[in-house]
Design brief:
Order of helices and strands: EEEHEEEHEEEEHHHHHHHH
Strand order of the largest sheet: 2-1-10-9-6-7
Helix content: 25-40%
Number of domains: 2
Number of helices: 10
Distance between the termini: 41 Å
CATH topology of the largest domain: Tumour Suppressor Smad4
CATH architecture of the largest domain: Sandwich
């Protein structure tokens, strides 16, 4: 089984992370409780064991999270972390969790806010009986870094003018904005374990044409990435950049209530043969 250890300043050494539990990178672990800008679990980054590998994820609504490979025993340096970051997790929006980063075997530095945490991953079968901790146990705990603002995640980024393109699209087609707000309403409201609403439920509530929500999503993907196939990133992009929010959801819910009162919801449900569960 793959193993992961993290440096604990409180314990004064390396600690093994249980594979059946989430290891939270919270205020206590990173700063000993001194940095009040850091969050407590479960609204912070964490490490978890998924499909026999370790991955870094984030539910932090305030900080970007950076992960950079390093050599065992290397003293962390904020400039190296910023320059060498292989993964950059954007801030979460409420309960919406950005795409996680899978960590390969080796030594890593993970930075959150102004702190850097040394981490060691062992996944090679031949290393199962060997030591997981780095040979040099004199690494400090966490280090303050300058918060970078211009590093990019290692995935295809949005086009340079994606924000104004989407803003103009929503201005020309306000119904698309309401549909996306209704579709992602659980994320906007910050519910636990949020999921997008079924597309047919959006069509019924807002009295849209069959397939309208799917077409809106495809058009938005073209505006943002010049291609389709970014299902998970779409909601993240709209939410993190404030292109849909509580005000849009309020208008969508008002429109849905007006349709219900006027009987249009029932007609749309019959038209689609949609049974609300």
């Amino acid at each position: 089984m793959s193993e992961l250890v993290i440096w604990s300043a409180a314990a004064g050494g390396w600690q093994k992370c249980p594979p059946d539990e989430i290891s939270w990178l919270d205020r206590s672990l990173l700063s000993g409780g001194s940095d009040l800008t850091l969050h407590r679990s479960p609204r912070c980054p964490g490490l978890r064991h998924v499909h026999h590998r370790w991955e870094l994820f984030s539910r932090d609504v305030s900080h970007l999270v950076y992960a950079a490979p390093t050599a065992p025993g290397t003293v962390p340096d904020h400039r190296e972390v910023e320059a060498a970051a292989r993964f950059v997790l954007p801030v979460a929006h409420g309960a919406f969790e950005p795409k996680p980063a899978r960590l390969d075997a080796g030594a890593w530095l993970i930075s959150v806010g102004k702190w850097v945490l040394p981490v060691r991953v062992s996944v090679a079968p031949g290393d199962r009986d060997g030591p997981t901790s780095p040979a040099a146990d004199d690494l400090p705990g966490t280090y303050e870094i300058h918060r970078p603002g211009d590093s990019a995640a290692r995935r295809k980024p949005p086009v340079a003018d994606a924000l104004p393109r989407v803003a103009r699209y929503f201005q020309r087609n306000p119904t698309a904005c309401l549909a996306m707000a209704y579709y992602y309403q659980d994320f906007i409201s910050g519910g636990l374990g949020p999921q997008p609403r079924p597309m047919d439920s959006v069509i019924v509530a807002l009295d849209l044409n069959k397939g309208a929500v799917s077409e809106y999503k495809k058009e938005l993907q073209r505006h943002i990435w010049n291609e389709q196939g970014h299902q998970r990133e779409l909601g993240e992009f709209l939410l993190v950049n404030g292109l849909i929010g509580a005000a849009d959801l309020g208008r969508a819910l008002q429109a849905a209530a007006a349709n219900e009162a006027a009987g249009r919801t029932g007609l749309a449900r019959e038209r689609l043969r949609y049974n609300k569960k």
